[in-house]
Amino acid sequence: MKNVKVILWGLGAMGGGIGKMLTKKEGVDIVGAIDIGAKLGKSLYDVVPGIERGNREDVIVGTAEDVIKPGAADIVVVCTDSFTSKVYDKLVFVMERGMNVITSAEEMAFPQAQEPELAAKLDEIAKKNGVTVLGTGINPGLIMDLLVILWTGACETVDHIVSRRVNSLSPFGPAVMEEQGIGMEVEEFNKKKADGTMAGHVGFAESVGMITTALGWKLDKFEQDMEPIVTDVDRKSPYGFAKAGQVAGVAMKGWGYVDGEMKIEMDHPQQIEPEQVGVHTGDYVEIKGIPPVNMCNTPEIEGGIGTMAMILNTIPHVINARPGLKTMIDIPVPRAIMGDMRDQICEECKIVK
Amino acid sequence: MKNVKVILWGLGAMGGGIGKMLTKKEGVDIVGAIDIGAKLGKSLYDVVPGIERGNREDVIVGTAEDVIKPGAADIVVVCTDSFTSKVYDKLVFVMERGMNVITSAEEMAFPQAQEPELAAKLDEIAKKNGVTVLGTGINPGLIMDLLVILWTGACETVDHIVSRRVNSLSPFGPAVMEEQGIGMEVEEFNKKKADGTMAGHVGFAESVGMITTALGWKLDKFEQDMEPIVTDVDRKSPYGFAKAGQVAGVAMKGWGYVDGEMKIEMDHPQQIEPEQVGVHTGDYVEIKGIPPVNMCNTPEIEGGIGTMAMILNTIPHVINARPGLKTMIDIPVPRAIMGDMRDQICEECKIVK
């Protein structure tokens, strides 16, 4: 079987990081790369920090029209946006050229939640072209949803779920610092929250949608809120700084109601340097049910590498899946690919034979 | 869509318990029951403790020949044995009559590990008959294998895995007390261990096989050992008793070697009344990798209900799967079925239309 052929669309921290990871795996080749601006026309191996070319053939960064051609690859990894509406045209462009596609766009982890019409269209276009489209990452995609769902597999009944991720933003770069309001004054945070420009975590609606759909609960209502985490002391991370009295992070909460009862509680405080103020980070799943579950993972699993790994590790599942829009509840559990990626691929599902 | 139709083969603690659980779910009917001896000819609802018939049609316990007829059900739940070789004929009997089959037999969670020839035959027979066969339970099937695999999905690399389950045997009945040597003298335990008649936990070879296969590791060697847990104080559980100096449980350990290195460590001490001697029960996953994982679930998730739930909750996945022998790494994650079971079924895969 030929190596798995991958095209990277978007070479930022996420897409570039996946590229770097892919070069360390067996049975898989990067055969194309797409980006915009100054990266165009340069070598992938010059554009992505820390990636090693070794003996590989060079890959020159091109436009989508140059790179996405029928039969060019088994799958395209799209890491350009967070929202389904923003990434939609790219996903369609890939699928209409007969390739599978996987994306880090958070809303695409369960696009049925906030974009049911686009989700239906993506499913239709995927089936028409005999390919598969999936969105995934560490969260949404694993920690606050799929992991919870897996635990319920051992339950006769589930009455109430708490899904909590208490994490540090310190490893992240300038873009995340800005998105999460690190170093903002509280007044500015509240203004941005009020006018809807404060992003916070994108994914609660998707995680709650995934959990309720998996369990067969009809979701009556979903609500979320965010509060600034105001620091009492100066906090400094490699790319962030919050003076005492400023915003050091965002505490997101979400609630899913089923049959008029609040059944799912999402709790996700993200901040820089939590240890400095005695906050212990971790991932938590608490299920009231028969039997109950009381899980923690401390410290929290790292989000940046975790998301790259989740995308890389689900490449075989996406290639193997029946055509259509898939989410993490439709495919087998993700797993670290420690051997040859081709060992995980069903030959008849491969595009580049 | 018609309700999902289920036949129960084996009405002991496990099969009967699954039957009782099924009567509390929507969209699913028990349409047949098979057992031997005094249960034959009686009503399922008289034979299984605590099950409620309600308005349901009666189900009379019959022989396999009476009950397993083409088109009689979508799936048969076989809870009669622990070993692949013992349950093999029953699985074939069902599949040759065109029905899917799921079993609690521990070795069937990954029969490729210890019975590769039977596993290949089961896969062939399943495909020939267009049906699916799966073995599952809480362990093997979830806690010491699938859960570990799920966590690795967020890892770029995995160097070493510890999978630990420290559980209480106190909720279990007389059969488990005997299997696990509760109340035995140490000398007798060692004699039975030496002559291979001390069962201990069945499943390490299967869990290690599942993990290595999922990750693409080539397993060089698998070893396991068991030691008696000798109590310093008298311990009494509802069905078990161990005097000071006697066996209160079995500590199983297992090791999986990859490329000459011990990569997977399995650790599973099971005993009655662990709290009495200060042992805290729980489920643990420790992964040395990038990133690392350090998970615990305390106390451990209950094994009896957990296994029944796992089997019930994977019924839709087995019906929906492509034909063949499947294991938990081939199908979507298990989840509690809290709505109508038919909502989880793909119509074209249903047998009883």
UniProtKB/TrEMBL annotation, chains A, B:
Domain 2,4-diaminopentanoate dehydrogenase C-terminal per the UniProt entry, residue ranges: 142-345
One Pfam short name: DAP_DH_C
SUPFAM superfamilies with a match to the protein in the record: NAD(P)-binding Rossmann-fold domains
Family annotation (InterPro entries): DAP_DH_C, NAD(P)-bd_dom_sf
Protein name per UniProt: Dihydrodipicolinate reductase
Taxonomic source organism: Aminipila terrae
